């Protein structure tokens, strides 16, 4: 049985990277433990304040954020931390070589109903060693990520990770407290008949996205000539996990509900790490047209439309958007 520690020893080229990943995954064990206790640990409900995005914070959003921040601040390899829940990046150890970005608790609306939630993380290189990190140090395209992954706190706790051109998965053994390797080469089939979208936003979508979903709903009777099935976890981490396990398409497209926001999901804490995992598992990830990993960020909290998963389906969505742009 291979553990996460064995895997990192064998595959991580940089001991600093192993060390930072270990810190994040150790905090994941604490969050997993708190979620197991649920209401008994007094972790449910609202924190009573808003984050920088203007969203109501849940108690667990704040708790998970603080646990990660405290642990990473003590890690000598971590030069700074940026979080969905914090207005600005927090400098850590100026001599560190890595920057860590995270969505401490993804799927916040699932916390109080005992459904799947997760932690998403991304690791970037730090180039100004010796000086305190600032927001601008984090503004690197997703293709610069040295590692990315997520912890899914579901019926079991699973870690998905990429530190090279491969994607692997571990399951947290509650008896030993070790992450045990359960898949050493995650691959996504190019075709799928399963899709995930919050269809209540239909009237706010752009015409090509409406057309795409209309076609899927028409199934056998429409131009696609086969039936499709919807699955929606309401936590990106759960939807992406399903896609890494059995393929599918996930989208949170551009919509006009909040015209001043480019999309709902955050580039640095959600879209980039998930896109790296999906691409390295053979899938594709776009903002409907462009590759997410090539977007040059201008703000650590910027949002982006997301279409990711089985390659042929992601490309089909892109074709519809390109055709519309030219019509
Ligand atoms: O229920 P909605 O508003 O459609 O949003 C669901 C989406 O929002 C998110 O929960 C956003 O993440 P947070 O919970 O970290 O804010 C995604 O995980 C999920 O895909
Ligand atoms: Mg999230
Ligand atoms: Mg979150």
TrEMBL record:
> Which residues participate in Mg(2+) 2 binding?
103, 106, 270
Catalytic activity field: beta-D-fructose 1,6-bisphosphate + H2O = beta-D-fructose 6-phosphate + phosphate
Pathway the protein takes part in: Carbohydrate biosynthesis
Q: What SUPFAM superfamilies does this protein's entry cite? A: Carbohydrate phosphatase
Q: Which domain of life is it from?
A: Bacteria
Q: Where in the cell is it found?
A: Cytoplasm
> According to the record, how does the cofactor bind?
Binds 2 magnesium ions per subunit.
Any one GO molecular-function label of the UniProt entry: fructose 1,6-bisphosphate 1-phosphatase activity
Question: Whom does it interact with, and what assembly results?
Answer: Homotetramer.
Q: Which family does it belong to?
A: Belongs to the FBPase class 1 family.
Protein name in UniProt: Fructose-1,6-bisphosphatase class 1
Give the source lineage, highest ranks first: Bacteria, Pseudomonadati, Pseudomonadota, Gammaproteobacteria, Moraxellales
